[in-house]
Here is the input.
Amino acid sequence: MNHFELFNLKVSFDIDLTQVSSTYQTLQRLTHPDKFASGSQQEKLLAIQKNALVNDAYNMLKSPLLRAEYILQLRGVDLQHEQQTIKDTSFLMQQMEWREQLSEVEEQAEPLDELELLDDEIRKEITSELVELKSLLDQQTEQANQQAADLIRKLKFLYKMCAEIELKEEALSDF
Amino acid sequence: MALLQIAEPGQSAVPHQRKLAVGIDLGTTNSLVATVRSGATTTLPDDIGQHILPSVVHYTSQGAVVGEEAKKQASQDPANTISSVKRFLGRSTTDIKAKYPNLPYQFTESDSPVMQVVSGEVNPVQVSAEILKVLKLRAESTLGDELKGAVVTVPAYFDDSQRQGTKDAATLAGLNVLRLLNEPTAAAIAYGLDSGQEGIIAVYDLGGGTFDISILRLSKGVFEVLSTGGDSALGGDDFDAVLVDYIRQQTQLTGDLSKNLHRTLLDLAKEAKETLSHESVANLSFEDDNKQSHKVLITINHFEKLIAPLVKNTLRACRRALKDAELSKQDILEVVMVGGSTRVPYVCQQVGEFFETSPLTSIDPDKVVAIGAAIQADILAGNKPDSDMLLLDVLPLSLGIETMGGLSEKVIPRNTTIPIAKAQEFTTFKDGQTAMMVHVVQGERELVQDCRSLAKFTLRGIPPMAAGAAHIRVTFQVDADGLLNVSAMEKSTGVQAQIQVKPSYGLEDHQIADMLKASMQNAEQDMQARMLKEQQVEAARVHETLQAALNADAAALLSADEKQAIETGLTELQELAKGSDKEAIKAGIEKVDKLSQVFAERRMDQSIRKAFSGQSVEQI
Here is the structure.
């Protein structure tokens, strides 16, 4: 049973997150170890394993990036343990530019505003790439899958940038 | 808001059927025990009517004294009077000495903290167990029967070793731990059930030695922790410490103080803190080691200035927790205040200002955690089969593995809902390598040295292969208590590698067994009897649950042969359980478990399918 099946869904990038979250509650009520507190060791152990699977699947379904990665994995394209590098030079140039901006942000007059601008720009990029990702995954061809994999690699960079912006923001703002 | 007066006449079990279960708040400064009795949840008093048990243990040559009596000895006999021991659980001796340089205790030369007292050597787990024993005894004598189990609370921010230490202490005290419950979640249960609220709440818990902030979503009986943060070494004790520094500064008491004088100053600081909770000035006077008397005046303004940086730290954690939950201050419906240190008006005021709402304080902040734990214990013990309450907790700190260059690679990020399991693959770097060292750490920092070391273990039995050919899959599993389990397998051969998990600063299983043995009078015999009883109880449980399952689902889910095999195993187990061979019973249970594994899995899958059949099914 794959993670989509566990949540009674067909494998698709487009899912109804409200439904996912209500299914999650149903599955929690059925598999949480606390529901087996007076059961045998075997039942408790099984509940922990099943419930861990439910939580793992839920984390995957909630995140567009993990969801796309999982769909590709089901199609035989595994990005988990790869060492593939990005060859798109214009993307790499853009990355370097953003990184430079991030590292120089403290020198700006309003560093927090600058961070926000940078964050907005990257999030806009993420949104547009996710739209493209969806259309690539819908095609279900070997070529489209490979292109989707490339896009996921790029998205990972973008999400990492967002996380770094967040860290910087935390460091700069004394709340 | 009144305290939990939820009577369910139709559902409450007849008294003799009711399984006794308690909630225990094992606090840094104070501990409490609570239970649900005839629909009401109350904390249990001792025989002179005191509900609060100070978490202080005084060791004499005759044994240990716990609570108020022990506390009185603190200034007379500081080296033998251990207080705030919760701060030492799961920590290294070096950590403790660095963090609290003025402790009056005699630590022995070892990595894990061991203190020399008049009756011998004691470790933090044993000291905590002394406190738990008193509460267990109090509950059993009040309720008139043996306890079936207990829910013991821990700060949400406690890491794996601190949780393990707490659980070990409970085991040592002879308690059956139904669950380790996070303190803020317990507080939310106490408030949440009472008001039947739905929405996002924040629980701000500032105890004697720990600070926690949790953001929870309440919805139809489900308490879902969205994020949690805090500092497991920040609390009211730190308020006392800055006051002591201030007093010394004002009286020019520099250099080393005698242990007694230090204790006196600490007591004075606590007093001043309490006075300043309802008055604007505190006047202190005392005599130093040279019999010279001193007077110090502390104003509320000054006190607030002293503790401001500490309170600010707590608010910083609140901000991060909100961010982790992807929420803003405006989303918070209520803020629940927990812990004695929230009695300091400045704390309440700052928290109120931060969340832009006035915090809830209607349940006694000292009792609210124990009360919530008791409600959960009642449900877990099976006294409320129709309860739809469910707690979804999270991992408070990221779990990682040490990689090349002393870096921590995160395997499970913080705020992941537990239970959770994650696998990570490793390979060998030398030809013919048959063993591998794995270092598990917990914390957010990049460098291993800045994280907490949880365990180092060696994977053995890897089949010898060329470098990089072996694929070892290490699975990290965190259970509902937040405790970590590790298992490993070599993938190409399916060889299960044995793991020796050595807790970095805790106790190993055999040490606990030894201490348990030592604590019983007729050690060996009692121990054997206890272990036999445990196996018999488990055998009975296996029989009961499996028989019920067979009656319900065998026809639909098992072939005649499969059913026959399980039934034969059960009959054998029943025979074994009548005897006194605990190893044979254990083997019998394992055999039945193996025979019924597939059945148990099919049943769980069936229950999921049934739940879905009501929904509009999107078939694959």
Summary: Chain A has seven helices and no strands.
